[in-house]
Each structure stands twice: as C-alpha cells, then as structure tokens.
Amino acid sequence: MNIDGLGPANMKLLTETGLVKSPADLYTLKKEQLMSLERFAEKSAENLIAAIESSKNAELDRLVHALGIRNIGQRAAALLCERFGDMESLLAAGKDDVSAIEGFGDVMAESVVKAFSEPHMRELIDKLRQAGVNMSYTKQSTGDDRFAGATFVLTGTLPTMKRDEAKKLIESFGGKVSGSVSKKTSYVVAGEEAGSKLTKAQELGITILSENDLLNMTKTEE
Question: Domain containing 192: what range?
Fold first, then answer.
C-alpha cells in the first residue's frame, strides 16, 4: 500500500507488541499507541498515522496486489481492476469471467476466485472497507494512446524515476509493462546495473531506451 515509514523493523515491532494482528489493524492505530513504543516519538508517530491515512486513497490495484493472492502480481492486479472496476464486482466474479481477461489462464482465474471466496479474505476486505480504504478503480489515462500495442520492460535503477512511476507513465499512454523480455517486447528501458534483461534485449535486437528517451517519447509537440 506504499505506506511511508512502515518498514520491516516497524512492522515487526507492531506485530510483536500485538498492536497489529491483521492488515486491517493498521487503520485503527492511534498516535498514543505508537508513542508508547520505544521507536516512536510524537513526530514519527504523527507521520506514520498520516501515511496510513493517505494509503486509504491508493488505487484498488495496489490493494488487490497487497492481498497476496497466489499467481497475481502487480500487472495482473491492474488487469483485474480494469476489467471489474470495483471490489464488489471482483468478489462476485466467476472463474469464466476472470479467465476471459487477456493474459489470464485457468490457474490464475482459479487463484482469484478461490482467494475471494475464503471467509477470512472477505472479512479482511470488509474491515478495510469499514476503515475507509478505497474499493474502486480509476484507470489513469492521458487520453493519448501513443504507446498502444507496445510492450515495455523496465530494468535497472533509473536516474530520477521509481520503477512504479515509469510503469504508470507508460500505461497512461496506453502501453503495457512486462516483467520479462521476449520477441514481443517493443522497448527495454534500462537504468544503472541493468542485468540479464538488458543482455537478452540486445541479443534480440530490441530497442533500448534510457529514462530520458522515455520522457522524450511522452512529450507533446507544440
């Protein structure tokens, strides 16, 4: 859910002290509870509470990915949300509905339907809904589909953009982002310490882009 300040050490502390037994418990934390822990002063407690509150507005695909459904990564979570639009529709979806999504097979569809049919998952989602966590999806788009039909692969560390930011930029122009390089890959955006993906792209003769190249491709001509 991209909550600033909720790293492994703080998460371990919250679970070991019993303040958080379920992901939904994060959304009931109070500043005073955090300040009772040795790692938190008033300012750090306020910052974490504010970050948790902010995460309620995250897009639905972040939540779906965060639920840890087997075989469902970030891209698959986004495709699910694009197809169904909100959590209620996702919960009601059958195997045939899910497997009809491009790129989904029977195994992925079964994972989704099984996960959303489990009582503990539905209870968690209901608690998150009651806490005010966003349950609908709004596809971010510029209205410009210049990357339609193109598949990008991101590798290495980019100079100024996080990989998630680059992914959203590409998708906002109608492009797709894949985790692996193949003959169907259109472009590979490579940063520092790019590894085997860059090597494979070079072997296949795929166009290699820098972050600056990608940004230039998204500029609007005046």
Answer: 151-217
